[in-house]
Design goal:
The protein is an alpha/beta fold. It has three domains: 113 residues, 3-Layer(aba) Sandwich (Rossmann fold); 237 residues, pyruvate-formate lyase- activating enzyme (Alpha-Beta Horseshoe); 63 residues, Beta Barrel (OB fold (Dihydrolipoamide Acetyltransferase, E2P)), CATH 2.40.50. It contains twelve helices and 19 strands. A hairpin with a 5-residue loop joins β14 and β15. The longest helix has 24 residues. It is globular. The N and C termini lie far apart (48 Å). The relative contact order is 0.08. It binds iron/sulfur cluster. The site of iron/sulfur cluster (SF4) has 10 residues, from α5. The site of iron/sulfur cluster has 10 residues, from α5.
Length: 475
């Protein structure tokens, strides 16, 4: 009988969101989450394949689960969805879910067919509340998940809406899935090829449930969030060049009672429209923080990446955002060492990132991902050159982060407390980290100890290496 499960998650916010759905589904079947020391009988590995490192980590987790067994292992997520022969000879009791639409059905079948088998005695301490497994729900698979690969064509994956996002103060809410833009470095259009979106009523209900569960901040997430409401990420196929659906959705989500803070996951510069910024201006709980993927500041590199904007397009969107929002935090992703990237092209990236003065950059060293067009492009950039460019950009990133934070010294910010080990710390509206010097803060009636999830006002006092030091003012 399967009664204890563990989930291991790699990758992006979409995967993390889906792992919470898997947890909730298994709990609804009567299983209890445990950590690996408590002998889970069912191990779900929600894989990522965005880079070779992510694939290797996914395979490592699979080998580890097999070694630590005996457990039924389910491998899902993006790695099985790409046909690159990276999952072979996995052995008995390993179920590979290639079509993500089948995941709920596969889990249901495993839980309910194995519910008749005897419960093996776990070697570690047993979960205090190991539950009895229920057998009243069985979701039928839409295809044979073990052997057959089909394009993911279903609109509903059978996984539940979330009622909580465990172990995080900030909840992710996935509203969109899939991308068919085929940027040349990206495997996602193979792993998540079908562009689809969720009904707004379902999203609003989920946002309200997450607020009820105590989440004060929600990150609206999608694989290609800017195409929310469309069935392709290729803008030229949209009825109008600007997408009205994302602003309309955000306008409604921002009115969910009790939802204090909303952020968005990554957007393309073209997703930033006057209508989107109107919604940000109308709702103070939409925080002044946008993550706009730049990837490169060189038009030639952007063309080789098949990105749909130029450096000047990016500049004008940044100007538009800054004309509407007060000192917004602009964060970004940059890839260094893309095939053929010359010193001059890298210098263009350096110049643009400096000009934009990003509040934070996520810097990735290009590594050829099998199954993508860029993996076949020549010439490759030598690895020592890639490392040197990455170091240069990281140094710039640290300096720009510090410069961004400096302008807020002496002001008050609202901090969502995330950790209370050592000094309490959390994120300000503009996403920089703030460490609080005090151990308690003043509410209307009393002094209160900080807890994760509290939002407190703090005076920003000192710019440290990676954060701002502050004193609390109260809730
Ligand atoms: S827009 Fe490009 S980088 Fe983003 S998910 Fe789609 S293909 Fe990948």
């Amino acid at each position: 009988m399967l009664c204890r499960f563990a989930i291991f998650t790699l990758g992006c916010k979409a995967n993390q969101y889906e792992s919470q759905q898997i947890r909730q589904l298994l709990e609804s079947f009567g299983l209890a989450p445990v950590d690996s020391a408590h002998a889970p009988q069912l191990v779900v590995i929600n894989t990522c394949c965005v880079t070779h490192t992510a694939s290797a980590k996914s395979r490592h987790l699979i080998r580890q689960a097999r070694r630590d067994g005996p457990a039924t292992v389910v491998i899902c997520g993006c790695l099985p969805a790409v046909e690159t022969n990276e999952l072979k000879a996995l052995g008995e009791n390993v179920h590979v879910v290639k079509n993500r639409c089948d995941l709920a059905a596969v889990l249901s079948r495993l839980v309910h067919t194995e519910s008749t088998a005897p419960d093996p005695v776990p070697p570690g301490p047993r979960s205090a509340e190991a539950p009895r497994c229920s057998t009243d729900t069985f979701i039928r698979p839409q295809s044979d998940a073990k052997v057959k690969f089909e394009k993911d064509l279903c609109l509903s994956d059978g996984l539940p809406s979330l009622t909580s996002f465990q172990n995080q103060t900030r909840a992710f809410l996935k509203v969109q899935d899939g991308c068919d833009a085929f940027c040349t470095y990206c495997i996602i259009p193979t792993a998540r090829p079908v562009v689809r979106y969720r009904n707004s009523e379902e999203i609003l209900a989920e946002a309200a449930a997450l607020v009820t569960a105590g989440h004060k901040e929600i990150v609206i997430t999608g694989v290609h969030l800017g195409s929310y409401g469309q069935i392709t990420a290729r803008r030229r196929h949209w009825p109008t060049p600007d997408n009205p659906h994302l602003p309309a959705l955000l306008d409604r989500v921002a009115q969910v009672p009790g939802l204090s803070r909303i952020r968005l996951s990554s957007l393309d510069p073209a997703d930033v429209t006057p209508a989107l910024l109107d919604v940000f201006c109308a709702h103070p709980n939409l925080l002044p923080h946008l993550h706009l993927s730049l990837q490169s500041g060189s038009d030639a590199v952007l063309r080789r990446m098949a990105r749909s904007y130029t450096a000047d397009d990016f500049r004008s969107k940044v100007a538009l955002v800054r004309s509407r929002l007060d000192r917004p935090a602009l964060t970004t992703d940059i890839i260094v060492g893309f095939p053929g990237e010359t010193d001059a092209e890298f210098e263009e990236t350096l110049a643009l990132t400096q000009e934009v003065a990003f509040a934070k950059m996520h810097i990735f060293v290009f590594s050829a991902r099998k199954g993508t067009a860029a993996a076949r492009m020549q010439p490759k950039v030598a690895s020592e050159v890639k490392k040197a460019r990455s170091r240069t950009l990281r140094d710039l990133d640290l300096a720009l982060q510090r410069q961004f934070r400096a302008q807020f010294l002496g002001e008050t910010a609202q901090i969502l407390i995330e950790t209370t080990n050592g000094s309490p710390s959390g994120r300000a509206e503009r996403y920089f980290e703030v460490r609080i010097a005090d151990r308690t803060y003043r509410t209307d009636r009393t002094n209160k100890t900080f807890s994760p999830g509290d939002i407190i006002a703090a005076r920003l006092q000192e710019n440290a290496a990676d954060s701002i030091l502050a004193t609390s003012i109260g809730s």
